[in-house]
Each structure stands twice: as structure tokens, then as C-alpha cells.
Specification:
Length: about 700
Amino acid sequence: MVIYSLDIRQTVHASSDIYSEFLAIPSYPTGGNPLSVSVYDVAGDGLKNIIIANYSNKKVTIYTTSVNGNLEFHKEIPVSGHPSGVTAGDFNHDFIMDIATSNLNENTMSVFLGDVSGNYYENIYKTGSKPIDIVAEDMDGNGFRDNIVVLSYAEDMIYIYYNSGIFKKVGTGEAPSSIKVYDVNKDGLKDFITTNSKENTVSIFLQNLEGGFNLSNNINTGTFPFDVILGDFNSDGITDLGVTNLLEGSVYLFTGLSNGSFVRMQALNEGLYHPSRIVSGDFNNDNMLDIAIADMNGLNSTITIYTGSKDGFISHPYQLISGVNPISIIAEDITSDGILDLLVLNEQSHNIIVYQGNGDGSFGPSNTYPAGNGAHWVASGDFNLDGNADLVTANIGSTDISVLLGNGDGSFKSPVLYDIGTTVHAVTPGDVNGDGILDLVTANFLSNKITILFGYGDGTFLIGHKYIVGSSPLLVRIDDLNNDGINDLVIPIYGNNFTTVLIGKGNGSFMYKAFLFSGRAPSDVAISDIDNDGIKDLIISHLFTNYITIFTGNGNGTFFKKGNINVTGGQHSVLIKDINSDGKNDIVGSLFYDDKIFTLFGSGDGSFSNMHLYNVGKLPSTIALADFNNDGFDDLAVVCELDNVVTILTGQANGNFSYGADFVAGSRPAALVADDFNNDGKTDIAVANWYSNDVSILLRK
């Protein structure tokens, strides 16, 4: 069988219209281990560019902002080193912006001189040992950002490179981790501020009239100060500062006094774990500085917003779900609407997220609804017969499921919980007793049973029969397998390596029909007619084998094992649909541990060939097919669990896919469902977020 492997995330060289299709927080792919981001107009077209230093693959990625705030890929520049920081300035006075990176492992900086055609030419200069940060500034007041400041972590030194060829060094505290350039004492001269991670201090160096720098203050901080901001937080006209203490889980705010000294005003620690970077800005337009903190906590990483006042920063902060381990944050008006937005660079999920400001201190659409403890699965249906799509979640952190009734405008009522009495891995809606009302069937992972909940038609349910089906059932699929007009059940049994088939009697009860042995840890089953004989067939995926298994239906609820198809890795989910419009069903699935989507094209006789592989984010799990961009072709949505995003792949007429967009979900998104939640005729997406115990709604615009 021919296999086509496409690295669509790393070769995306254009923006996608999909970003404009959803009212959601967008995420954009970067290179490997991005460490630094800056915002400048390097193209000279009046649009802001996002410049990203990617440490592991030694590249600089440049995006251009569009008028609606979306980012469009502009350019990628190879770097002769592992860049840890990036900045921009006009270093040769030709009125064309240049780019500079600090290269951590090589003890160098790369200066990329730009030309009128948008090309960049690299020049390499030696720096101190372990250059961790870099800033371009107008240090000598000549009107050009032509001076480069490099911070040497291993040498405890600031290196200053002037356009004139003059070179200076300034000693810092031990193991400096970040540097800012700011006129601290408002004398018109740029000063230096460094965080010194090993001695737990912040140092302030004031520039004198001769261009030298004098140590003005050494301020004691918390453990491992990592970043610093400066601004007038209490509106007294004197510079204040804030410091993130990475290993203490706190931020210290210091008030500046008229004599040039600083006193600690406030310590913020609510909701913080490992605060890395910090920015300030007036996010709610009250003429007071607020702060946003990038907090590194793996899949539970957040952006924490504290609102400022004259009496200090208000506690009970507002938090945004970020990517994995945010390492850099910038406050900038990306959309040119006069409202500050946030750009967050995430090292471990290899993406940059744009949170558009609303002007009231919040960011992005309000699209998250509480579900239950460990919301691990989500499904949709009209449970109360009002014409609106409702949601149900399986909550793996408890023993219940949650029903969220839809309001028809994309919002949902508070969840109603039903205690199943055991851990529920998944829940599926379907009419199992023939009354025209949706019921629910749960897969109870620890009790080896399924539970039937009968719907009343008003959005409430009665807990009914339970059936033992095998060790650790993962989910339930509902369909009519024997063409008697009654829904039957198919349940992949993770712990026994078989799939259980129950035939419905029409009154909500079931009888055992078959146990289909396939491969190790069956994870999902897709039901459809793959050989055009009018009888439902099964495709079973497996989490720990490299193949899917085909069972053709006999028409009476029993099945014949036709064979296996190698798909190169363990699978989480599988779907059957005609994706190339040839009238023959195809297969789409997710390779959970290989971070890929696979497709197989059907021949109409039950055989499949021409497998295509598409790279996506980390741990792709559940998938959905729908036309998200109204071009007449099915697109694919997939949850990437370790990136906290939903990825959209745009479908083409021939059944192939290209990279579309990433959108931020909650913490550890585990499942999704596609449906129209606001009755506008467009397909939306709901995402169950395992770690943040909620559901994210991605509405189409």
C-alpha cells in the first residue's frame, strides 16, 4: 500500500481562512521550542510583524498581522545557532528594519541586515557566555534603534554594541535571567534593569551623561527572579517595578520613592505556580496599569490577569488557559482598535496564541461553561425537544455525567449531574426504546458495565438498566446493525481486546449477540456500509496495535472478520465517511502516540488503499468531520490533548487535507463534538476539557 506523509504544520506558508470562521482564540504554530517573541514592523508596510526565536530548530519565524487580528505567515529565517532571544532595529541606518538574535549555545549573536526586497543577510558576532536575552534600543539618542544589548547568563555581564563600533560591558548580579531598558529616573537617558536569578535580586543601572552605567539599586526579590516590568502602577509619577519569582510562585510589586529607592508594595501569589514572564498595560481602559503574568504549569498553564488600582492590584485574578509552558508574553494592540491584546509564546506546545482584548480587562470570546469534575467526553443532541442542541459530558474525575441544556444562541445553562455510581469514560445519546426521545448510554470504565438512562423529553433522564460488557469499556456506538429499525449497541472493550455487540429489543433492553476479537486495547468503532451491500459493517481501532480491523456485517447483528489494515501506529478514534466525493466510504482516524491523522480511500468493495498521514499536535484524540469553511468539502477537527488546542484541517475535493488553524480549548482537552449550537445553520464545535472541568464552545462566525 502506498503511504503519503505530509508535514503540514511545519510547511504552512500562508494564512488560512479558517481562522476567520470561528469566534474563538486562535493559536499559530511556531518552530521547535520557541523562547522569545518581539513585535515590530520589519516589512515596512505599516503592519506589525510577530518575530519568534525557535531554539531547537534554529530558525526565526515571522508572522504579519492582518486587520482582523489574525496572523499570516510571512517568512522563516535560518539561524546559525540556537536563538534564545530576538529583537529588531535599524542597525545600519538604511531605514530598513533588521533582526538580531542571541544564540545561547554558540555564545554568539546573529545580526540579520534586511534589504528592500525583504531578504536578510546574517552576520555573526561573539558575545559573552550563554547569551540569554537581547534588546535593541536607541541608547545614545541618535534617533535609531541601532544599539544591541546582550545579557550573558554565565558571565554575569551586559554587553552593549553601539553602531559606531564602540563596545561596553557592565557587570550584573549572579546569573542574570532577563534585562529591560527603561528610563527609570526620567532623566531622558535609557537605563538597565536585570533580574539576577541565583542571588534573588533585581539590579538597576542608571546611565550617566558620559554613557556609563552606575549601579543604583539592588532590590531583594523572591526565589529565582525571572522577569521584571517597570511602570507607574500607583499614578504618582514615579517608576515602580514588578518581578516574577519563578520558583516561589509569586510576583512582587515594588513602589518607587522620590529618593530613587524601592519598597515592596504587594506580593501576588493567587493562582500562580511558576510565573515566568510579566507585562503591564491598561487592559480595561481605566487609566491604571494592569498586569498579565505567564504562569508555567504544564497542561494547566495559564495567563493570569491582575487589575490595577491606586491601592494596589486587586486579588482574585482573571485567568486564561494558555498553551503548554508560556515562556514569553507581549501586550500590543494587534488589531489596531485602540485596545491592548496579548500574545503568548508557549515553549512546549510550540505555538503562539493571540488573545484579543475586549477593552474591559477580559480577552477573547466568553466561550467556556462549567461541566463536571474531569470532563473527559462530550456529545450533543436535543434532549428537551426545543430545537436547540444540548450537551452531555462524561466526568472521569467523579462518578457522574453532566447535562447542559442549550439556549439556542451558543450559550448553555448550568449543568445537571446524574450520578452513575462509577467512573464514566464516555456517554452517547440515542433512542434505545423507540419513543422518539433521546436516551443516554454510558461506558463505565471501572465497573465493566454500561448504563442506560431513559430520556423524558424535557431534558431530564431516568437511570435504568445496566449491562456487564467486559473489562474497561471505553465508549458506546449506537446504530441499527440488523435493519430491524431498532438501535443496537457496539462497545469496544479496552481490557479484554474484544468489542461487544448488544442487539436492541425495542423497549430499551438488550441481548448479547457477539464478542469480536481484534487487537490490543480496542479504542473506537465506526459503523457504516463499506462494501455497498446495504448492511452495516464495523471498523475497529486499537490504542496499542498498528492496525485497524474490518468486520463485515452479516445482516443479523453478527460479523465476519475480513482482516486488518496497517496504519503505522496506535489509534484513538476512527470515522467512516466519503471524503473525496466518489460515492465510496473512506476511513479517517487519529494516531494517538504518533501525533498524526491518517486517511484511507475506499474502493467500494470493503478494501482500502492510498493511506495519507498528516502531522498534527501532541496526542490527537477524538475527531469530527464537517464543512467548517463552506466550500462543499468536509474538513477535520481534532483535539490535541497535550497542546490544549483544537486543530482544523481543511478538506479538498480529492479527499486530501491541508493545515487550517489551531484554536485554544481548555486545559487537557479530551473530546469534541461538532453541531450547530446557535441555530445559524453553521457547524460549531464543543470541546470537553479534562483538567479544567469545563466545556469550550467554538462558534462559527
